[in-house]
Amino acid sequence: MTSATDPHPHPETTAVSPDRPPPGPPAAPPDKAPRWSLPALLAILVLAGVLYAWNLSGSSLNSFYSAAVYSGTQSWKAWFFGSLDAGNFITVDKPPFALMVMGLSCRVLGFGTWQMMAPEIAAALGTIWILHSSVKRAFGHAAAATAALVLALTPITVAINRDNNPDTILVLLMVGGAALALRAVRTDRLLPLIGSAVLFGLAFNTKMLQGYIALPAVFAVYVYASKPGWRKKAVNLALAAVALAVASFWWAAAVSLVPADDRPYIGGSTDGSAWDLIMGYNGLGRVLGGEGNGGGGSGGGTFAGTAGIGRMFNDVLGGQISWLIPFAFLALAAGLVLRGRAPRTDPTRAALVLWGGWLVLHYLTFALAEGTMHPYYTTALAPGIAALTGGGGVMLWRAFRGGDARWSWVLPAGLAVTGVWAVVLLRRATGWNTWLWPVVGVVMALAIVGLFVFRTAGSGTRARLLAVSLAAAVVAGLAGPTAYAASPAFDSASGGVGGTNPTAGPSTGNGMGGPGGGRGGDGGGPGGMPDGARQGSGQAGGEFPGGDGQMQPGGGGGELPQGGGAPGGANGEFPGGDSARSGGFGGSDGGGGGPMGGGSVDSALVAYLEKHQDGAKWLLAVSNSQSAGQLILSTHKPVISMWGFTGSDQAMTLAKLKELVKKGELHYIQLGGGGMGGNSSLNQEITSWVQKYGTAVKASEYASTSTTESTSDSATSTIYRLDPSDVG
Q1: Which residues contact 677 (CB under 8 A, 6 or more apart)?
Q2: Dihedral, 682, 685, 686, 690 alpha carbons, nearest 10
């Protein structure tokens, strides 16, 4: 990507009337960019770095992914497959590219919050830099600075960039791919097009089909706006398609070449294969429902409101992503009209089509998705919104100043809609910064009046007042999202980030977002409750009985504090959820948003399991990946997730359980529940066999006297011991 001081000229878009061709772009100074450009970009990057990293050790990371990253530091096989446990029983329900990046960082620097999040923060800052560079070439430096600032301050983007979900790296790869595609259109070179295809392929290996959402826009822009003839275009696109296929499917192909008995079960699939995961759970199931994603809006409605064209503006998502969506759409439409008679290869129109296509495609996909839909998915909308706000906004400003009365109302109208919508969103947050919405409304109104009054200013005082009016409008438009964006880092009472379903700002809806409400359980799958209900009111996977609410780590290390993620540092404290040692194993929140499952971990029981592990590969087998992830982070030992994240994976069968027990690789199993989906048939079959042949672990075998005084030895236990002799 080019820097803000790139010596090559950057064309400046001038306002034109739609009934005459646009004039040729005036030449920029040949040797240097505006003096303020690089300092402005660096200031935005510093601001973003503070928002993404401040008090990071106090944030709750997603224990589902934290456990997989840790396991990857213990086993290269787990690192390659994206296994949840170092014993390689089951993987997470995503391809492993983002986990690989975080895992390499932790292998070099040691495992901890900061070590894991360093590449995520670097990716977030890189996305801002790349977007700035791309917008600058098409729209100029002012547009680029505006786009970079909007992206940095998007609330849901700030929230997800403080979390270890894969979306931060996903957005980096997609924005890089889009920027390279625009470079290929502009320069008539093949290499940038191939690079674009490779980055979109790696995006596929980060979150599968979500990495492809913007591809139709990239294809359309290259086909229409690039300079080569049709034959050369066809050859170039064919080569790019090969690069895309290789970059997309190398991991799935490699997995399929490994015999099923020698690889972990691919989480989220129905048959343990990567191809099934691609086509089903992480494929059209996300959009159409089913395949473990719910249906008819049930999956999406749990976290992001009911599917429909207005979903981005509902109580759950509105404050996270929608602040500038109306302005972005208006800027897109007006920009296309302004460039209507430009040459086919016009780079400004190509950029409008690409970022406009990005916005439209992501908007429709997320708004209409009937399957699993979490608020943080919408961070993928932010680059399109930012690019159109910056580039289209500058075009509207030039049209406003151009003297054509037909365009004098478009920019003020867009600002007015932005101000009104900001007031609506801020008023939804009852009791939260109640002073802010009147200030936003008044400042925006005065700014719009100033724009009209001083529109014809030439120079001197009137020109300065016009600039002040524009600056006031920008401040008013960004005040709301900035307040939301600042909350995860600086206002833990109202803006703490939940690792499994991160959001920014106050809770305003009945999805699983926002502080003050519950947060859904996600490693990418469904789980969680509507209406802000606290997670764990039901026991998705059973709970460890008794205990004092704290658990000592196996093999040393300090305890994790309740209610907050462990700080990462040189001593390798374990991140991954807010209560890795204080929230029961059977909860369904995956490690974010409070104690899990309404229960507590019994440190004496864990000590008993570790003492009697007797050389087994796995410490314990539990029902779901959330429980297993918490245990892995707490004990530093492999733990089996029998049914995967949703509780419906067929990872554990009775035959496989018998084999593990017969080999002495597993001695203890926890019964109870089947996770969120609930694989009832396998669960019942295994439960019956374990209860028949296993030996129940009673509280008196591990608990303290004070605990057992109120606990009957005859109480039903959920923990069973199995030995090779128990296999008939």
Answers
A1: 292, 526, 643, 646, 647, 648
A2: 170
**CB within 8 Å of 32: residues ≥ 6 apart:** 5, 7
CB atoms within 10 A of CB 315: 17
Give the span between the Cα atoms of 28 and 255, in whole angstroms.
Answer: 52
Strands 640-641 and 621-622: parallel
Closest alpha carbon to 574 in 60, 52, 55, 51: 60
Contact 654, 686 (CB under 8 A): yes
What is the C-alpha separation between 440 and 481, in angstroms, rounded? 11
CA distance 387 to 139: 9
pLDDT of residue 548: 32
419-461 residue pLDDT tens: 999 999 999 998 899 999 999 999 999 999 999 998 876 677 8
Which two three-digit tokens encode residue 144? 């680029």
Q: Determine whether 430 is exposed, middle or buried from the number of CB atoms within 10 Å of its CB (0-12, 13-18, 19+).
A: exposed
Task: Enumerate the β-bridge partners of residue 83.
Answer: 91
Q: How high does pLDDT run on average in the chain?
A: 80
Which residue has better confidence, 634 or 554? 634
Tens-place pLDDT, residues 365-397: 999 988 778 899 999 999 999 999 999 999 999
**Of 419, 429, 2, which is closest to residue 180 (Cα–Cα)?**
2
Partnered with residue 618 across adjacent β-strands are 666
- Closest to 117 measured CA to CA, from 208, 54, 205, 44: 54
CA–CA separation, 599 and 586 (whole Å):
8
- The answer to whether the beta carbons of residues 410 and 401 sit under 8 Å apart is no
What is the CA 57 to chain-centroid distance, rounded?
18
**Which residues does 135 contact at the CB level (< 8 Å), separation at least 6?**
143, 144, 147, 148, 351, 387, 390, 391
What is the rounded distance in angstroms from the CA atom of residue 693 to the CA atom of residue 671?
13
Instruction: State the DSSP string of 393-450.
Output: HHHHHHHHTTS-GGGTTHHHHHHHHHHHHHHHHHHHSTTSSTTHHHHHHHHHHHHHHH
Quick: pLDDT tens for 319-333: 999 999 999 999 999
pLDDT of residue 188: 92
Residue-by-residue DSSP string for 281-297: IIIIHHHH--TTS-STT
Eight-state DSSP code of residue 668: E
The partner residues of 696 in beta bridges, in order of sequence, read 720
Quote the distance between the C-alpha of residue 299 and its chain's center: 17
Residues in Cβ contact with 528 at an 8 Å cutoff, skipping those fewer than 6 apart: 302, 303, 500, 501, 512, 518, 519, 520, 521, 522, 535, 588, 589
Beta strands in 594-662 (DSSP E): 621-622, 640-641
Rounded Cα distance between 318 and 299, Å, is: 19
For the cut 50, the answer to whether the pLDDT of residue 547 exceeds it is: no
Which H or E element spans position 719?
Answer: strand 719-721
Strand order in the sheet with 668-670: 640-641, 621-622, 668-670, 719-721, 695-696
CA proximity to 429, closest of 300, 326, 549, 517: 517
What pTM, to 2 d.p., does this model score? 0.83
What is the C-alpha to C-alpha distance for residues 174 and 169, in angstroms, rounded to an integer?
A: 9
Nearest to 556 by CA among 573, 542, 570: 573
52-89 burial string, b = 16+ CB within 10 Å, else e?
A: bbeebbbbbbbbbbbbbbbbbbbbebbbbbbbbbbbbb
**Residue 705: its H or E element:** helix 705-708
Dihedral of CA 682/685/691/692: which sign? negative
